[in-house]
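Morning!

This is the sequence you dropped in the shared folder:
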Amino acid sequence: MIRSSSPIFRSFRHASVAALAALTLLIPELQAEPVRPGEADLWVMAGDSITAQKLHSNYIEAFYRARHPKATIRFRNSGISGNRANHLLARFDYDVAAWKPTIVSIELGMNDVGSPTPEAYIQGMKELIAQTRAISARPILISSSPVNDGSLMGAWQSDRCERIHPFTEALRKLAEEEKVLMIDQYHPLIDRWGMNYLYFQADRLAASVKAVRERKEIAENEPLQAFAAAWKETGAAPLGGDAVHPGSVGQTMMAATILMGLEADPEVSFATLKADGTVEETRHCTVTNVAREGDTLSFTRLDERLPWPLDPKAAEPVLRLMPEIADLSLYLLKVSGLPEGKWTVEMDGNAVLTVTAAELEKGVNLGALTKGPLAARGAEIIKEIATLQGGPVAEWRTASKEKNEAQVTEAQARIAAQEAKITAACQPKEIRFRIVAAK
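The structure's back. Tokens below.
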């Protein structure tokens, strides 16, 4: 497998691999089988305000829609600001069960930590598991994300962020007891967000990076020291939003953490060619109309599925802060036998990457490009999903709460129409590739 160390991400990895690996994402140990959404699944994403924002939940939906373009997987957002476990229990019948879901993800905790201990939260989550199973749906538990306030593990900057730690551990224990899949966002992200916050603030205040590195809790922690050295090279970036509700950058990182916990299928497609135009191997794609003329190798590639659509507002900074996101979209191209030198990869007339012949022979991952036809398609998919969840799905939820059957029926028709637009946006199209000697 060619991972995110492919040449396209070289510019995001000026620091040593060892330094970045010090805080690489931790995929939680699973207590249940990974999720494999199927043809007829309907997934309700239930939660509080961060779910109601329709950012990371939409990004997760975009991943599965793009990866399974022929399937009829459906997603419904059921987030309400300020919710705790008891609030979701109170609205479960009309806002979750009424959808007749097969999968229900429950992402709560940020508001529940207002209590000094996790007992009420855990009891509520236990009841939500039981209610989900009672409607023949599969429950998935998702912990709260951290507070983006400069907190580090063991060096918290707020009581709220500190309390999420024991609440998450209690949730993990419940998942083990109930044999439910539980995904921990908090622990994989807290140090990554915390270090980014510190360096971003240092940049804004023109403070010394050295002063940040000398903070006691960082100076005495080798992984954080390594991470600090790497961050000095790669630079910091704002997550957007506020401390509790990050914007598109932070929520793309959340979505990636959740997808890794779900063991989402990372492979998009794979194509290997020789410089003379011979097609050696393909997976999940077809390669036709191959031609070699002078210093140009051209061909048409039609894929069976698409890379994970990245929000264009977040793509560049998020790939810099979390380069392993590329591992979730392995859209691979290998070309062997090209003369030494640099070569430009064009897709539908757009120059998307310049690499050496040796790098192309090893293979490059084009799955997280920030320009070209795949990036444009991803932006379109995200836009259509936002329209679905913010429009007819929200209308359906209001009608369901009010028990207005006529409005439910009208909203369902609008949902079906928007679903058709999303399905159309997710269908792969032929892309004309040209591998041209760089000038």
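Headline: The domain at 15-261 is CATH 3.40.50.1110 (Rossmann fold).

More detail when I'm at my desk.
O.
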